[in-house]
Amino acid sequence: MMKFDTIIIGGGLAGMHTACRLQKSGQRTVVISKGISLHKPDFSEYRSLGGRILMGDSVIRGEFEGGNILAVYTENLGQNRLEADNFILASGKFLSGGLVADMEQIYEPLFGLDVEYDRDRNHWFAPFDEHQGFMSFGVKADELSRPFLNGRIIINLYAAGEILAGVDPTETDSVGKILAHTEAIADRILGNA
Amino acid sequence: MENSLDQCIKCAECTVYCPVLKATDSYPGPKKAGPDGERLRLKDRVFFEDNLKMCLNCKRCEVVCPSGVKIADIIQRARHRHGRPIPGIRDMMLASTDLTGSLAVPFSGIINPVLKNGAVRAVLDCTLGIDRHCTLPEYAQETFESIFKKRFSRQQQSYPRKVNYFHGCYVNYNYPQLGSDFVKLMNALGFGVSLIRDERCCGVPLMSNGMFKQATRNAESNVNVLSGTEGPVIATSSTCLFTMRDEYPAVLGVDNSSIRERLTLAVKFIYESVSSGKVRLAFREGWKARAAYHVPCHMERLGWGIFTLELLGMIPGLELMELDSNCCGMAGTYGFKKENYGLSQQIGSALFSQISGRNPDFVICECETCKWQIEMSTGYKVLNPVSLLAEALDLKKTAKLNQPALP
Asked: Is the pTM of this model over 0.90?
């Protein structure tokens, strides 16, 4: 068993930004990152702040109870339960496997969270030079960025970055938007807002 | 074996993080040597390139791959399948750790000073191709197995809980101190230690020198012997453990499913025993040190570095710095070879300069070959976390805490 204040799933732009911010504010955090994101975050700073990184590891399941997520288990750590007060899901969109699309549906593979997308598959994509519908599909969340599981909010889980519905990484100002949004999540976790 | 090369999306993240490619452009890089090259090799052996042996098998490509491609496994399997190396006398010597070790230990009093001699090193450089700048690991005066028999074996029966210890060649022939530290530590935690009957070298030096047939023989023998044991099989070396756990099936095709779940590393076993409340620790009062932790490549691939950090984090007097995750460049016996020495030093340079910048009392690391490289290239002493823990603990008090309740 390992206990943290916040567990961050995904070591990309949104995940590392929030992790650094929380670790700097005195929290004990861990980032679980499947691989290295193309954003090439600065792990060195996070490490020197005492942050833990599980690089090349993936979450295989979560433990939920009464609208809360209590713990996750990863592939490399086996039976070791990773507990935390808060969790951040920043696993990205399709390229990083945060969302999966098959012929019938689009789903979030880790916890099976509710996903917002157009049910008509013909609207998912468009000719090459036009806006692609699938780029703004994502996990449905409330105004505090908490996602839904079978219509119920998970109280201590936050969705951050590209995985969120409405966040389109092809938009020109998407990075700024994502960073501002992760700041708001960190503030909420730290009790500043 | 799943054909993970189809999962490659050509993002080239592995190429960016390959330590060999950072130091030289004569290696094609993990993406080209791995999934890309494999497509061609599947068609015709003629596409096999000899420079695949430049791969250190550090597995960093697999750690950073966002698509889960087993890049280094693809490369090692290709070497296994297509490589036709005729190892020279040097490579055979460096690879056959069991043989050279058992021959050298009885004469260690003569061999150690001789190997330190500058003239001898110059001769080895010219004749065998072992670089003269290298410090070869010293041989022990007595093997760990013999020390264990004399000093420890009798009392092990008195502990109700038992573990098996895979000591590896380095502990047996070169550094029995680590083995003794492990036995003392496990005894204090309330576990009796048994050695493995007819333990053989895990095979990693054989594999890296292209001697896959001998490595497979060792793997089959070890799996066979270990399946006759009960309870956890613990290693102190991350490389021995990783090889037996993951490379036996993935590279050598040796089925280890009968023992894989019981194979573990000392730091993981101890951390799990402490965190689940099965074991309690009492630390020495007033003990203080500043240490830097270097995560060996195979530890990074296992994803188990966090166990060392969390376990050592329990030591009250220890200031522990985590170094950036970098390859030291030694890769087993690679860095000893004259043709690789310069490249090996260049690969490790980022790590060396970070260590001297932090100026710790010593470096912590689970891998013996990283230890050779760091000690020889930086002058800082390198300790296995097991030895550090044995030093920081009050072993007598700890033993009392973990004594089985009397019936």
From this structure: yes
pLDDT tens, residue order, chain B (407 aa):
456 888 899 989 899 989 999 888 889 999 999 999 999 998 988 888 888 888 988 999 999 998 889 999 999 989 888 877 677 888 888 888 888 888 888 888 888 888 888 888 888 888 888 888 888 888 999 999 999 999 999 999 999 899 999 999 999 999 999 999 999 999 999 999 999 999 999 999 999 888 899 999 999 999 999 999 999 999 999 999 999 999 999 999 999 999 999 999 999 999 999 999 999 999 999 999 999 999 999 999 999 999 999 999 999 999 999 999 899 998 888 888 888 899 999 999 999 999 999 999 999 999 999 999 999 999 999 999 999 999 999 999 999 999 876 55
Closest partner residue to A54 (CB to CB) among B272, B303, B322 is B303
Helix (H) or strand (E) holding B350: helix B341-358
Prediction ipTM score: 0.92
Q: How far is B172 from chain A (nearest CA, A)?
A: 29
What residues contact B42, with CB distance under 8 A and at least 6 apart? Answer: none
* Residue A78, helix vs strand vs coil: coil
Q: Copy the structure tokens of residue A93.
A: 């969109």
Q: Which of A47, A60, A162 to mutate to test the interface with B (most CBs of B within 10 A)?
A: A47
Residue A151, phi-psi category: left (phi > 0), alpha (psi -120 to 50), beta (remainder): left
Ordered DSSP codes for B264-294: EEHHHHHHHHHHTTS----BPTT--EEEEE-
SS (H, E, C) B292-329: EECCCHHHHHHCCHHHHHHHHCCCCCEEEEECCCCCCC
| Integer Cα distance of B197 and B73 in angstroms | 30
Q: Answer yes or no: do B324 and A52 touch at CB < 8 A.
A: no
CA A98, CA A164: separation in Å to the nearest integer? 10
Interface contact flag, B65 A35, Cβ < 8 Å: yes
Which amino acid is it at B162?
Answer: K
> Could you tell me where the DSSP H helices lie in chain A?
13-24, 43-48, 174-190
